[in-house]
Write a structure and sequence with these properties.
Layout (H helix, E strand, L loop, with lengths): L1 H18 L6 H38 L5 E7 L2 E6 L4 E5 L10 E5 L5 E5 L2 E2 L1 E2 L2 E2 L23 E4 L5 E5 L7 E6 L9 E5 L6 E6 L4 E5 L5 E4 L5 E5 L3 E9 L1 E7 L5 E5 L2 E5 L11 E10 L4 E11 L2 E5 L41 E3 L6 E4 L13 E5 L1 E2 L13 E2 L17 E5 L13 E4 L5 E9 L2 H8 L13 E9 L5 E11 L3 E2 L4 E4 L5 E2 L1 E8 L2 E2 L2 E2 L4 E11 L1
Parallel strand pairs: 16-22, 27-28
Antiparallel strand pairs: 1-2, 2-3, 4-5, 5-6, 7-8, 9-10, 10-11, 12-13, 13-14, 15-17, 17-20, 18-21, 19-20, 21-22, 23-40, 24-25, 25-30, 26-29, 29-40, 30-37, 31-35, 31-36, 31-40, 32-33, 32-37, 33-34, 38-39
Helix pairs in contact: 1-2
């Protein structure tokens, strides 16, 4: 619209200039300025109204208990509403625009909120237009519900009438409202974020009141319940529970399991082996509700087995040893203060970096000392908690970082945990184990390593996706893989497993993937090797790294 105005004005000015040299075009340009100002007002009102409509939709959805309001920020042009899921909405103050159609929302007798125009329900294809999304049907798998769509508005350039769309902008219908006036009206008449500590109150232009819960101190945490918890048949285990602002909760469980919570402890009991009707796996699910109606669902995977399954998690709360190489009873002190050149992984003395999971899985490892200088570049397995989502930082200075970042915790470990282990090193001979990093049982007893989880590091992903001075981005036919080799107590190969970490130009592992090693049977140690199709004169160009976590070991 603005381009058309400018063109017409320019044409008028040119015509006037041709009629005489004394022509005064001041009035013309004043009129053009006024027209341009009105166009600006119309454009602002359209933008603000559509923003208000989307904000209104988000507020109604928040009223259903899915999210809460974390902050209300007042600005020159209105309010910014921030929600607990990280999203935000902007509410205009209605100034500096044109009159807008009387859009609002109203709850019908079925308890559902619908969009209205001039107090009447808006319909599309004979159905009232819902504000919040339609819930899916119960059952397995259950039909998905429909998404809610906020109506959109625009101003017809020819008629100056407001038009409305209920199908995402595909078709438009006139509202009969002329977009005139210097002061527009917001869909919102007021925002009260002060009078009630638990609620934010929104008053719409038609008097409708919306009350949305504030984010309060509300949480239900089961310590040590990330991922799947493994139980021997009939075993009972306690988990510490921390609650804040919980008004009530309920617990569901698989058939044959028992679960109860009292005095800050969740007690879970697996079914007996002879209970053939019991479910051997499933989820303990806690539904917690705050006094403002906010809801949190906590899911805890459980599985009953004929043996005990102990997990090497690298988390401090699971440390059961008498002290690590530094004398500390934790895992985090083994994370070097720098990813490259730090004192633990690149010592100035002859202290060989090592770790063990004493009194738990009994798995242990130490650096391979491949170059006789005790450094990490000589191959080894290093404890880490580094996360790097910027591929441009995918270099040796960030060699201990994984690309994965849990959306809930912000950590990079499997299941949202903090710590994990990073492997560095390879052998050009895929069949050889000489000089490879390894895990072994420190007590000398062979056991079944049931599984572990693996993922790529940021350094590897940058090499594969972008390339660096040594490697080119992967193309069709390229392959990067992990090779796990199990050795029995007699030193013979018990089995090997290959895991594709990247392939062609369209696949690279960016999350944690479970790798089953149970087919090896009982092993005394396992070696890790890496192989890539990207090789040069001096060997593999792809950085020889991967990360692993949550190594599960069977105990009879």
């Amino acid at each position: 619209m603005r381009k058309l105005v400018a063109f017409c004005a320019a044409a008028l000015v040119c015509g006037a200039m041709m009629t005489g040299c004394e022509y005064d075009d001041g009035d013309l340009w004043n009129k053009v300025g006024e027209l341009d100002s009105r166009v600006d007002g119309l454009e602002k009102t359209v933008g603000k109204t559509n923003s208000d409509l989307e904000a209104l939709r988000l507020l109604v959805e928040a009223m259903q208990g899915s999210v809460t309001i974390t902050a209300v920020e007042s600005g020159d042009d209105g309010y910014t509403i921030r929600f607990s899921d990280g999203t935000s909405a902007t509410i205009s103050d209605g100034r500096d625009g044109a009159n807008a159609p009387a859009l609002s929302v109203k709850m019908d007798t079925d308890g559902v909120w619908y969009w209205t125009l001039d107090g009447e329900f808006i319909t599309a294809d004979g159905r009232k237009l819902r504000v919040e999304g339609e819930k899916g049907e119960d059952g397995a798998p259950g039909a998905p519900g429909s998404d809610a769509v906020a109506p959109q508005v625009r101003i017809d350039a020819a008629t100056k009438m407001w038009e409305i769309s209920t199908d995402g902008g595909h078709s438009w219908t006139s509202t009969g409202v002329v977009a005139e006036g210097s002061n527009g009206e917001s869909l919102f008449a007021g925002v009260d974020a002060e009078s009630d500590a638990d609620w934010v109150i929104f008053t719409l232009a038609d008097g409708t009141e919306l009350r949305v819960a504030r984010t309060a101190a509300f949480d239900f945490v089961i310590e040590g319940a990330s991922g799947v918890s493994y139980f021997r048949f009939g075993a009972e285990r306690d988990y510490r529970v921390t609650t804040t602002g919980v008004a009530e909760y309920s617990i569901s469980k698989p058939d044959g399991w028992r679960a109860s919570c009292a005095d800050g402890v969740l007690t879970v009991t697996a079914p007996a082996a002879e209970n053939v009707w019991a479910e051997t796996s499933g989820e303990i699910v806690v539904h917690a509700t705050s006094r403002t109606g906010s809801c949190k669902i906590i899911r805890m995977g459980v599985e009953a087995l004929p043996y005990e399954l102990r997990i090497l998690t690298f988390e401090d709360e699971d440390y059961k040893g008498n002290g690590n190489m530094l004398g500390n009873a934790d895992w985090s002190s083994l994370v070097d203060e720098k990813q490259y050149g730090g004192p633990l992984l690149y010592p100035t003395d002859e202290e060989l970096y090592r770790w063990d999971d004493e009194n738990n899985t009994f798995l242990a490892s130490e650096f391979c000392n491949g170059y006789g200088d005790y450094q990490f570049w000589g191959k080894g397995l290093a404890i880490s908690d580094y996360v790097e989502r910027n591929l441009s930082n995918g270099d040796f200075n960030h060699q201990l970082a994984v690309y994965y970042k849990d959306p809930a915790t912000g950590f990079g470990g499997c299941g949202g945990s903090k710590n994990f282990c990073v492997h560095n090193g390879y052998n050009d001979d895929a069949d050889a184990t000489d000089g490879l990093p390894y895990l072994y049982f420190m007590d000398g007893e062979a056991r079944v390593i049931d599984h572990l989880y693996v993922t790529n590091t940021t350094y590897v992903l940058n090499s594969i996706k972008v390339g660096n001075g040594f490697s080119e981005p992967f193309a069709k036919g390229d392959l990067y893989k992990l090779i796990v080799i199990g050795m029995d107590e007699n030193g013979a190969e018990a089995g090997r497993k290959e895991v594709v970490l990247a392939k062609d130009d369209d696949y690279a592992l960016e999350s944690w993937e479970k790798v089953d090693l149970s087919s090896f049977g009982k092993v005394l140690m396992v070696y890790f090797n890496l192989s890539s199709t990207d090789v040069g004169d001096y060997g593999m160009n792809t950085p020889a790294y991967f990360a692993f976590d949550d190594v599960a070991v069977r105990f009879e």
